[in-house]
Automatic annotation (TrEMBL):
Pathway: Polyol metabolism; myo-inositol biosynthesis; myo-inositol from D-glucose 6-phosphate: step 2/2
Cofactors, names only: Mg(2+)
Record-linked PROSITE patterns: IMP_1 (PS00629), IMP_2 (PS00630)
EC number(s) reported in the record: 3.1.3.25
Organism (species): Geotrichum candidum
Residues bound to Mg(2+) 1: E72, D91, D94, D229
GO BP annotations, alphabetical order: inositol biosynthetic process; phosphatidylinositol phosphate biosynthetic process; signal transduction
Official protein name in the record: Inositol-1-monophosphatase
One annotated GO molecular function: metal ion binding
Transmembrane regions: none
Taxonomic placement: Eukaryota, Fungi, Dikarya, Ascomycota, Saccharomycotina
Length: 289
């Protein structure tokens, strides 16, 4: 199916409605719910994550019965695959740890992909009432204001504000690569480091990517997240002049489900910035699909 047969703006409007409805529930319940472990004691889920996913799936399958749905809470490892079909790719709460701790940095992330390419994205942080939207070929916006918000100055790694996340895998080679890379990005240039301006972790992949789209952050690097963490943010960022490449060196055209990403804002020197960033990555991150 081609994008010309699908009303992307209508999908965006419907996703905004769902995000605002679900956002009320997320805001009300934050800090008040029990949680369970998934893969380990820092990979968490609550009954609200599950309830929001059910609500979103129901609304979408009623309005778009022929489109597919992939959501974090119903995904089956090794079985659920993204196809070329029109597919909603959804994270009911991105930033569940923040949600549990009543730290006001989580969101609902609603993406729509076609031919495995993000076409529509809606990311809503109900705690700060921040609504990010993006539609392929139609620009991206924060609360109606076109992105990026900050004028795109030239990109350099030394002057960058870099988003990173520790993730939930805290042992083994991937963990070592991450911590060694963090050190190299932070260290002074006389010691071989990038000496970047600073580091931030918003605790939500979607909000990190949207932060890059606004221009507040220069880039975001992570391994271990999934398509539902990045799909919606991807189109918000690319419509703002930014791009997502692989989080391993040399991967200029990374697939939506590669699990390893580097998101970079628009601006002069973007390609050189990506190469410079890659030169500080201390190995090859590898995750199961
Ligand atoms: C997580 C967040 C976090 C990122 C992890 C994700 P969740 O999603 O986006 O920032 O570091 O890779 O899994 O568990 O809060 O939906
Ligand atoms: Ca989630």
């Amino acid at each position: 199916m081609s994008a010309s047969n699908i009303d992307l703006a209508e999908i965006k409007d419907f996703l905004v409605e769902i995000a605002q409805t679900a956002g009320k529930l997320i805001r009300e319940k934050s800090g008040k719910v029990n949680f369970d472990d998934k893969k380990n004691g820092v990979d968490l889920v609550t009954e609200v994550d599950k309830a929001v996913e059910v609500l979103v799936n129901k609304a979408l399958s009623e309005k778009y019965p022929h489109f597919k749905f992939i959501g974090e809470e119903s995904y089956v490892a090794g079985e659920t695959k993204i196809t070329d079909d029109p597919t909603f790719i959804v994270d009911p709460i991105d930033g569940t740890t923040n949600f549990i701790h009543f730290y006001p940095s989580s969101c609902i992330s609603l993406g729509f992909a076609l031919n495995k390419i993000p076409h529509v994205g809606v990311v809503y942080n109900p705690f700060q009432d921040l609504l990010y939207t993006g539609v392929k070929g139609q620009g991206s916006f924060l609360n109606g204001e076109q992105l990026p918000l900050r004028p795109s100055a030239a990109l350099t790694l030394q002057s960058a504000l870099v988003a990173i996340e520790w993730g939930s895998d805290r042992s083994g080679n991937n963990f070592k690569i991450k911590t060694d890379t963090f050190t190299s990005l932070a260290a002074e240039t006389k010691d071989g480091g990038a000496f970047a301006h600073g580091f931030r972790s918003l605790g939500s992949a979607a909000l990190n990517i949207c932060g890059v789209a606004t221009g507040s952050l220069d880039c975001y690097w992570e391994g271990g997240c999934y398509a539902w963490d990045v799909c919606a943010g991807w189109i918000v960022l690319s419509e703002a002049g930014g791009r997502i490449v692989g989080g391993n060196p040399g991967d200029w055209d990374t697939p939506l489900d590669s699990r390893v990403y580097l998101a970079v804002r628009g601006g002069e020197g973007q390609e050189q910035f990506i190469k410079d960033f890659w030169s500080h990555i201390k190995g090859n991150l590898e995750y199961e699909h």
